[in-house]
Amino acid sequence: MVTATADIREPFRWTGMGYAVPALLLLAFFFVLPVLALLLRSITEPELGLQNYAELFATSTYARVLFNTFLVAGVVTLFSLLLGFPVAWLLAIMPQRWARIVFAVILLSMWTNLLARTYAWMVLLQRTGVINKMLMATGLVSEPLPLVNNLTGVTIGMVYIMLPFIILPLHATLRAIDPAILNAAALCGAGRWQIFRRVLVPLSAPGAAAGALMVFVMSLGYFVTPSLLGGTANMMLAGMIAQLIQSLLNWGLGGAAAFILLTVTLAIYALQLRYFSGAAGTAGGR
Questions:
Q1: Chain centre distance of CA 136
Q2: What pLDDT digit, counting tens, does each position of 128-145 carry?
Q3: Which of 12, 80, 109, 198 is the most exposed place for a label (fewest CB within 10 A)?
Q4: 128-to-30, 43, 116, 133 alpha-carbon distances in Å
């Protein structure tokens, strides 16, 4: 009986595939084919082989760029999670009226032009900027701190940009947690730290993992903010790819770097689908 039902439904499952053909064709022409062309150039220019990939890992300059990229992405993800969790929890427990206002501020920061936000941080972080003036006025530092044209400025600017992308999934997960679970833990004698560590953190792990992976992947390929706040001395992978292709016209090496970035990104997304999608569904079902 089950087999018969499945056989009846099988033709209907494929009847709607025709509507997806335009989207699949668009994806093939504007994503799959360019990626294949880029991969082909990375192994054929200047000659056939994997010398471009070997050069990326063997040359200290390129290896340093790869290290900077993953270092900044990891640090940005860590600080975004540490700062985003309290904000998401506050949004989950505060009255709806005030939560809407805070949400509006967060969304407004997302809708503001990225270039404008980055230039604003350049003004704030420079040696004569507001932040250094406040630090010197309070006596915390005796001279201005170098916060621009280094990885510190890149991290600060990118954490600000990435915060909404970790607050939103975390807030959705925290809102789905039944407050009765936390009350039950308190009634059983658990302290605040125990409730946070053994109840709240495990239940919010799916949202935290989803947000952290999203921030990490987006940070790997960011271009504008690292280029403006980090400068050429602290280049990241996206900036190096742009320089290799636009300035040096080295399509082989640039294609190899781009393909490495794409491979890492797809691998991280695959890990997210494999290990965290089911956990998110289980948490939501609770």
A1: 33
A2: 888 989 988 888 888 888
A3: 12
A4: 45, 48, 19, 7
Would you tell me how many other CB atoms lie within 10 Å of the CB of residue 18? 8
| Ordered DSSP codes for 27-80 | HIIIIIHHHHHHHHHHHHSSSSSSHHHHHHHHSHHHHHHHHHHHHHHHHHHHHH
Q: Tell me the one-letter amino acid at 243.
A: Q
pLDDT score, position 283: 43
Q: Which two tokens stand for residue 185?
A: 């833990």
Long-range contacts, stretch 274-278, CB < 8 angstroms, 24+ apart: 276/206, 276/209, 276/210, 276/213
| Reduced DSSP (H G I as helix, E B as strand, rest coil) percent helix, strand, coil of the chain, to 5 | 85, 0, 15
Domain boundaries, the chain: 60-285
Q: For residue 279, give the H/E element and its range.
A: helix 277-285
pLDDT in tens, 231-249: 777 788 888 888 888 888 8
Rounded Cα distance between 25 and 31, Å, is 10
The pTM assigned to this predicted structure is 0.81
**What residues contact residue 223 under an 8 Å CB cut-off, 6+ apart?**
236, 238, 239, 242
For the domain covering 60-285, report its CATH number: 1.10.3720.10
